[in-house]
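Support request, please re-run this one:
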Amino acid sequence: MNHRKLLYCSIAFAFLAPAFASAQETKQPEKTQDQGQHPAKPAEPAAEAQNQTPPEYLDNRSTPETLIRSYYNAINRQEYARAYSYYAPDNPPKPFAEFQKGYETTASVKVLFGKAEGEGAAGSAYWSKPVAIESTGKDGKMEVFNGCYRLRLANPAIQGVPYLPMSILDGTLEKSDKSLEESVPEGCEAP
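Re-run finished. Output below.
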């Protein structure tokens, strides 16, 4: 009889242990004044930016917008080699070390889009994509920029190996004194 009780207890434990462990993992300790932060006071911007969980990984080159979202996703995750890979291999913006150094004080970037203008020519499709970005530095300082990215996709049906996905040809951004939402250009020059 004792073996049955032991068996039932073991089975019950096997079913309840994962739920108990999950509940323990999600429980966060409460902050107190002794930990250096008042419960009602928000964290300082620089500290908040440094302690944020990176955004979920995004790598999508299907459209001009998803490619640029993926580019800034890589910047936000500090995956600079991946960000650099979104540029056309025959037209990098600058040497990689210099590119990476340009983002060393960037904590995060938000991006908004205008309507892409596209055209086809000589077996490739080209787009101009208007953007506005809000860059937050590791010091908490926020700046807004706007401009355009030019993108290219060689016709997938006629490409060989290695296959080259849609890529950024170049981009121009200028500082804006307006809000992020007001800074999105209405359009860009034809690609």
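Residues 1-49 have pLDDT under 50 and may be disordered. The chain has one domain: 45-183.
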